[in-house]
Specification:
- The model has no long low-confidence stretch (mean pLDDT about 85).
- It contains 8 helices and 2 strands, in the order H-E-E-H-H-H-H-H-H-H.
- The chain is an all-alpha fold and about 230 residues long.
- Strands 1-2 form a two-stranded antiparallel sheet.
- It starts with a helix and ends with a helix.
- The relative contact order is 0.13.
- It has one domain.
- Belongs to the ATPase A chain family.
- GO terms for molecular function: proton-transporting ATP synthase activity, rotational mechanism.
- It is found in: Mitochondrion inner membrane.
- Keywords: ATP synthesis, CF(0), Hydrogen ion transport, Ion transport, Membrane, Mitochondrion, Mitochondrion inner membrane, Transmembrane, Transmembrane helix, Transport.
- One of its GO terms (cellular component) is proton-transporting ATP synthase complex.
Amino acid sequence: MTVSLFDQFMSPTYLGIPLLALALTLPWVLYPSPSARWLNNRLLTLQGWFINRFTQQILTPLSLGGHKWALILTSLMIFLITLNILGLLPYTFTPTTQLSLNLGLAVPLWLATVLIGLRNQPTAALGHLLPEGTPTPLIPVLIIIETISLFIRPLALGVRLTANLTAGHLLMQLTSTAAFVLLSMMPTVAILTTILLFLLTLLEVAVAMIQAYVFVLLLSLYLQENV
């Protein structure tokens, strides 16, 4: 039973070839390309409105130097939301439940923000490792603690996204299994469990969008510290 629960998180293969690359490419095919017409259809209008609103929301606390990251952050947000929501469909695979993929997204972007800070304002970037007014005996300890907390940031980004999506998928599978097993023994309880599963699915859709937003928001905050 334990093995079957976690089988859904294994990367699917076909003829020994991992299909993870195909799963990562699919979200970009689903979105229509903007046209040169004066008036777009409703889908393109809604897509443009969402991108504009999100870009304004993310770039509001950033200085002008951080506005260069608008394309990267917005694309990452749409990419993560699409992967997370597609993973809630039956018989699908969620790439963002793989810690390796999430760390592959988090580590390079976090490292880029740190390198930008060291290049643009090295004194201020290194000053974050030692708060002002620290007693002399505590200076070595605080430098070590702040350095560790700095390197934990990308790990926290990846683990947060992986853990929330994995927990939600496991909870949905356990609830659906319970509803199926109880259907023949206690139909009333099975119906209540199915209602709970429906509400849990709605919650997971919200979690899929919120976790993608939190991932990008934290990256923008790290960028703000170094710009």
